[in-house]
Design a protein that fits this description.
- Three copies of one chain form a homotrimer.
- Helices cover 49% and strands 17% of the residues of chain A.
- Chain A is α/β, with parallel strands linked by helices.
- Chain A has one domain: Ribokinase (UDP-N-acetylmuramoyl-L-alanine:D-glutamate ligase, 3-Layer(aba) Sandwich), CATH 3.40.1190.
- In chain A, the strands form two sheets. In chain A, strands 2-1-3-4-5-8-9-10-11 form a nine-stranded mixed β-sheet, with helices on both faces. The first copy, chain A, has a two-stranded antiparallel sheet with strand order 6-7.
- The longest helix of chain A has 22 residues.
- The first copy, chain A, starts with a helix and ends with a strand.
Chain lengths: 266, 266, 266
């Protein structure tokens, strides 16, 4: 776990191009900005090539898309592959909505992601494992989460983050678990989307995407946990505000004091 | 007024499917989440049937729509009726923009809402009563607000919430007034949209939509009022943050200490 | 510098019609509302004429547009000119993305703006001056910023605001510099878009757009600076919240205590 990547990120201020969920786009942009990256957003195919060219990494959110946006997502994904820019995918609600799973599966034949981040229901759906999702939430099931994440990573030949109370990060062989965090992430609808874009920001500053994925999860989870430790009375609204402050102000040294993770395999 | 419905809502965590105003969608999602419901959003007709199927209630915001969105709203409204899911309509700015009133009137022949929530200008427009709206704000007029709300409820055969400093809730016969609240709701553009979706959340946990509508208004107004009582210096930004906290943390017992409402008829 | 315009604005509560960047639309609406204006938003050409008719001023954000939105922007710009409503343009990222510059240049032959507000990279691009922009950020270059702003104002025959640590406001002859502000504006992605719409709000309450532009810049920069002076520990999230409070609560007298500006020419 190379937490010093956070300092690299803040020095390099990488541009992250996001095709974002319309529900959470403002929080995602502000979260990237607060952490030290530079967000750009676009809904227009005509500028896709230029946008990818500017960016150090690309994050595609597969939630809440229209037909027109699918075409743009496909184009941007292909261009990211062509330009060899790291590509992060967030498959929102593919576990709950069959239509979204079908579209996502189609898109994943058109381009290759370097990292996929989703909750248990979403990663299970992409891995082809039975799971009971609930709406856009993770749902619950009996499956072994490590097995699900590993199966998805092997199937799609990429790094997978199965996020939840414990984040599981795997490249199909090695597995790291991050156990920091706070339940308050669940009451802020932008948390998952924000994490996905932060993963992309870390992928822009190292070629080791497994390392980038772990570090992003640790940084995000630890900052959330530190917010609650410092302000125990925070709730839905104040947590979000303090999280943004924390993304900007938290140091690597502060994160190291609480960092809780383990290498399961590898 | 069955305030205990708030506890039911928090236990059941109902999924509310929203077609939301693009201006306020993030606040609406976060507000639902904070209160204890589970928001889902979509702009894509192809997943309308699945989305309604997942949901315990549907809320359609008729503000800021494009031609494409109108078709989606029509489809979702019809499916909600077919699936017998409670349907809440928020007719944003139909009092100020003739185009929106015409579209809304057309849509209301395509599906039947269970609850309509709007300000005085919006409800007057749907009722066919003269009223001077101002932009997206309520405007002012000489009409008897109870008469306007009742006329709208009778005309459209649904529960009507005419919200403002005093919320008027009517099924066309019975009328309840909720007098809690705070003027700070006016400086937060998402307040009305958030209330509409919260009404839908309550409709998901009871079949008595008149009861659901009253309770939603009381819960929302009282939480806003409690925020200001506890933090008298709040203004536009901090009010919104504390409102989100309040939606999550306020108990039925706290609401009961200030609940101010009266049954006018019935 | 007529700071009393802020009081006029709060008394008149002008309606500002915005075609907004989808990333920042909620913050823009809330910022206008907090300051004392009344925001309306629309993405639908069919209601463009009515929307402009309701408004005291129009603000068109040229960031993050799709093909469909370009058509709407063109229509709304022309109608604003026809109805002689003040028109403010925010040319987001035209300095970084050639596609956006081309579209913006085309639009600027279809309607005439009264005020353009952008960062150095954006204004340089419209003026046809070489400049190194970075993503959506201002970038850096060797040019004389006053010369760039003046060249843009002369070329397009309008008031130009080149905003940054120092805001430069010019009508092509006269130049005013506003040196208030805080670096925290940079960590909030909505700051520039919010300022553009606030410029429009001031244009709605005076026919002197050079005066309106200066006053808007001073009010916004000074309120940001006062937030940080009063709460020195603010960061990305809390700054935004306190900025919204400040937009609502800050008086002209408070702004006068720190107002720092100079008339360079004229």
């Amino acid at each position: 776990m190379k937490l010093a990547l956070l300092e690299t990120l803040r020095q390099q201020n990488p541009i992250v191009f996001n095709i974002s969920n319309f529900v959470t786009v403002q929080d995602v942009a502000n979260g990237l900005n607060a952490l030290g990256a530079s967000p750009i957003m676009s809904e227009e195919v005509a500028e896709a090539d230029e946008m990818v060219g500017l960016a150090g990494a690309v994050c595609l959110n597969l939630g809440a898309f229209t037909q027109g946006q699918i075409e743009q997502i496909r184009t941007v994904g292909r261009i990211a592959n062509q330009q060899q820019k790291p590509l992060v995918i967030d498959p929102v609600a593919v576990g709950a909505i069959a239509y979204r799973r079908e579209v996502a599966e189609g898109l994943l034949t058109d381009f290759h992601p370097d990292v996929i981040r989703g909750n248990a229901g979403e990663i299970a759906a992409l891995a082809g494992v039975a799971w009971q999702a609930k709406g856009i939430d993770a749902g619950e099931g009996d499956g072994d989460l490590v097995a699900i994440a590993t199966a998805c990573a092997k199937k799609l030949a990429c790094v997978v983050i199965l996020s939840g109370p414990t984040d599981i990060i795997t490249d199909g062989e090695r597995v790291v678990k991050v156990t920091n965090g706070t339940p308050l992430f669940q009451v802020h609808v932008g948390s998952g989307d924000m994490l996905s874009s932060i993963v992309a920001a870390f992928c822009a500053v190292t070629t080791d995407y497994f390392e980038a994925a772990q570090t992003a999860c640790m940084v995000f989870a630890a900052i959330g946990q530190l917010v609650v430790q410092r302000q125990p009375q925070v709730a839905a609204g104040s947590f979000t505000m303090h999280l943004m402050d924390g993304l900007q102000m938290t140091t690597v040294a502060e994160i190291e004091t609480i960092a809780a993770y383990q290498l399961e395999k590898g």
